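step=predict obj=HAD-superfamily hydrolase n=286
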Amino acid sequence: MSEISGEKSAYIFLDIDGTISSSLHSVEPEVAAYLNALAASGHQLVFVTGRSYLWAEKSLSFLQGSYLFSCQNGALIQEMPSRRVLFQNYIEKEMLSLLDRIAEPFRQDYVVYTGRENNSLCYYRESLFTSCQEKTLLDRAQSVGEEWISVASFRDLPVESFPAVKFFGGQNELQSIADEISKAAHLHIPVIVDPVVKGSFVAQGTMTSKGDVVDAVVEMKGARPVVAAGDDMNDLAMLRKADIKVVVETAPKDLLMMSDIICPPADKSGIITGLSQAIERLKRWG
């Protein structure tokens, strides 16, 4: 990218939950203004989130110019606001039988998240969740605007491929499941704090990682230098690919140890501090 007012412009890859926002549905006005100013000055913003398509898209409605958008940990990359698809890598429906065999010993079922071509509908097997689990998860879905549909079998799904599957529950049990799925099915499935249900965790399985988003954008756009900011384990692969790594101070130890810059949490609009320091470093970029 070019030099702008003596400052080298960059591709800035940003997680949403816990990094630029502490809210489920919006970004603080001062953060929104700052990010719009960065884009206006020539930096290319790339939002990379584990959120489902519709939930993530709505939360970025404050953006005034063009940007890149990747949902569900890299399963889809789009140019915005045109919604032109740059990259897509979905899970094939035939893989679900393998996931069933892996999950069965743990007595833990999962939810299938479909993409924008199916209105981002989510499918679950009601008979495999307790009534308490179902209520918690349906309340969660309602709070973020997801529509969940109960099916007797995933053979009844109206699509042949989809962006992601998600498991919900405790950290230790999800990590055990994730380890098995990673080995047997070769999905990327980091376990992170659930941004919606307090005290709960979520493991999202995809064909891609956030690091793949960096690779794809670098290949397509010649993106360098790369700044990345994140706060949880699904950001690890993205941060590893970055030239300047901004990590929120509440992040797990693995992320903090690799950081170049540690910033205050999202509820204090800390991303402004973190990115401001990164921009200063860019002025000395070779």
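step=describe
The chain has two domains: 3-89+209-282, 91-205.
step=end
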